[in-house]
Specification:
With about 260 residues, the protein is α/β, with parallel strands linked by helices. The protein has a 7-stranded parallel beta sheet, with helices on both faces. The longest helix is centred in the middle third of the chain and has 22 residues. The N and C termini lie far apart (about 50 Å). The chain binds nicotinamide-adenine-dinucleotide. The site of nicotinamide-adenine-dinucleotide has 29 residues, from helix 1 and helix 6.
């Protein structure tokens, strides 16, 4: 019960990594404010949580809605201790020589401005809380070429540096800020990006995870719970000396291929 009496805000909470993290933080005692554009998924999560998880419909591309989310969390519980800025999707997948400016901007709004504004509007409610922690979802796409199209990767690089800058600027308020770089994690993100019909999602996912699995030193694939564990660690007092950095949770895929000679 590391988070008893604490309030956590989680975005992208209706599915995948966000959902697993809501469940993990609630299991360890937190009151969780779960935010997503998926009203059905978010409401279902809240309904089965024994009053530990509250859903607030929020589009993280809409700054007014992010502010309303943070204000709602603080009004409901008295303040915010943990923020997991996690909502996301693949964004515009066009290569750099084809992408339209609108697609670029939309991807930045979804994946980078959302995190900046999540921090911006949470912090007034985090000041004075002991050991507050912000965790942002970046990606291994921020660590090297080859894992995603340009816009997504650049936005996630932004999340890494934003996490460093925010850590430096917010340390005086006793707020730590870190990022996580997940590798290939079994969620809806790839099937959504490929826009495959619902009944073909599992098959589309299976192909992607098979390719990833072949390249990962740790076999069996990454699950949302693997990321939730890292969020819980970074949010806890066990990580009190960790700020302004990123944790890679990828089964070793970024080690790269091994060449024997
Ligand atoms: P997911 O599709 O299972 O979950 C993403 C959630 O974000 C969904 O519930 C979706 O409705 C929500 N969302 C999308 N746009 C939103 C918006 N504008 N406002 C609010 N909510 C919105 O995917 P996931 O894999 O759990 O993705 C979570 C985060 O992890 C994303 O930031 C993604 O970029 C990152 N990530 C995922 C992987 C992976 O392999 N799954 C790897 C690296 C990074």
């Amino acid at each position: 019960m590391r988070f008893a009496g604490k309030t956590a805000v989680v975005t992208g909470a209706a599915s995948g990594i966000g959902k697993a993290t809501c469940l993990r933080l609630a299991e360890e005692g937190a009151t969780v404010i779960a935010a997503d554009i998926d009203e059905e998924g978010g409401s279902e999560l809240a309904a089965t949580s024994n009053g530990k998880i509250f859903f607030k419909r929020t589009d993280v591309c809409n700054v007014a809605e992010i502010k309303a989310l943070m204000d709602f969390a603080a009004e409901k519980t008295g303040g915010i201790d943990i923020v997991f800025n996690n909502a996301g999707a693949a964004g515009d997948r066009a290569p750099i020589d084809e992408i339209e400016p609108e697609g670029w901007d939309r991807t930045m709004d979804l994946l980078l401005r959302s995190v900046a504004m999540g921090i911006r509007y949470a912090v007034p409610h985090m000041k004075g809380r002991k050991g507050a922690s912000i965790v942002n979802t970046a990606s291994i796409a921020a660590l090297g070429a080859g894992y995603s199209p340009s816009a997504y990767a650049v936005a996630k690089v932004g999340v890494l540096h934003l996490s460093k800058m925010a850590a430096a600027e917010l340390a005086k308020f006793d707020i730590r800020v870190n990022a996580i770089c997940p590798g290939f994690i079994k969620t809806n993100i790839f099937a959504s990006a490929l826009e495959v019909p619902a009944d073909q999602r599992d098959a589309a996912n299976a192909v992607i995870y098979e390719v990833a699995n072949a390249a990962q030193p740790v076999k069996g694939g990454g699950n949302p719970e693997d990321i939730a564990s890292m969020v819980a660690y970074l949010a806890s007092s066990e990580a009190r000396f960790i700020t302004g950095t990123h944790m890679v949770v990828d089964g070793g895929i970024t080690i790269g291929p091994r060449h024997s000679w």
